[in-house]
Design goal:
This protein is an alpha/beta fold and 221 residues long. The protein has six helices and nine strands.
């Protein structure tokens, strides 16, 4: 077993399973997808630590792979079926989309940084994933052209209510993400019903804010 394969197994057994992630499809996906292939070379030694790993970005709009446990627990709450159409918002270098690709039928993923979107396409192609379409778009915009979606996954946190993304859900569709609209930030599950949306807190969680999902500064006199 290679060094990274051993680290991947330890990540699943030492971080993900003890966090009440029991969905075997998610565990198998995390064992199968080489997380080290989605981070810069200098970050490969820490690819499987319980960290948000910086993978690039322009200026102050840094992008990260969010902690494996946070991603796994959100995906479990989303209850993704093999026939679902899923949108991953803010996919960075494509790791989250790669995990979701092993759970869903069809995956669309957006990234606001064009260079990272290009890297995501390359990374997914190199490991043979063919059911993910990557596009460049601002996080709050989503990808209405390919919607509506059974599930939308925020690969990061939001400080605003993403109403534009809610509108891209099918009836009974689910959106999962870390909402930093209050303190402490919490992972939430939003479900669309006939003409309305319901929200349920899943767990306390921190994740870097997605570019474009920041709260606007309050006006002061």
């Amino acid at each position: 077993m290679s060094e990274f394969s051993t680290a991947r197994q330890k990540m699943v057994d030492g971080q993900v399973r003890p966090s009440d992630v029991t969905d075997l499809r998610i565990l198998d996906a995390m064992l199968a997808v080489p997380r080290e292939d989605f981070v810069p070379a200098a970050q490969r030694p820490i690819a499987y630590l319980d960290l948000d790993i910086e993978v690039g970005g322009v200026g102050t709009a840094k992008r990260y792979l969010i902690k494996p446990v946070v991603l796994a627990k959100m995906l479990q709450a989303a209850s993704i079926a093999e026939t679902d159409r899923v949108l991953v918002v803010g996919c960075a270098t494509g790791y989250s989309a790669a995990i979701v690709s092993r759970l869903a039928g069809e995956v669309f993923a957006t990234e606001s940084d064009a260079a990272l979107a290009g890297a995501a396409k390359t990374n997914l192609s190199q490991i043979g994933i063919a059911n993910v379409t990557i596009g460049t778009a601002e996080a709050a915009a989503g990808d209405a052209a390919h919607g509506p979606y059974d599930v939308i996954v925020l690969d990061g946190a939001t400080e605003i209510e993403p109403e534009g993304l809610f509108a891209q859900l099918k009836p009974a569709g689910r959106l999962v993400g870390v909402f930093a609209t209050t303190q402490p930030p919490r992972a939430n599950l939003v479900t669309r019903s006939a003409g309305d949306f319901g929200s349920r807190v899943l767990f306390d969680a921190f994740a870097p804010i997605l570019p474009g999902m920041q709260r606007l500064p309050a006006f002061t006199f």
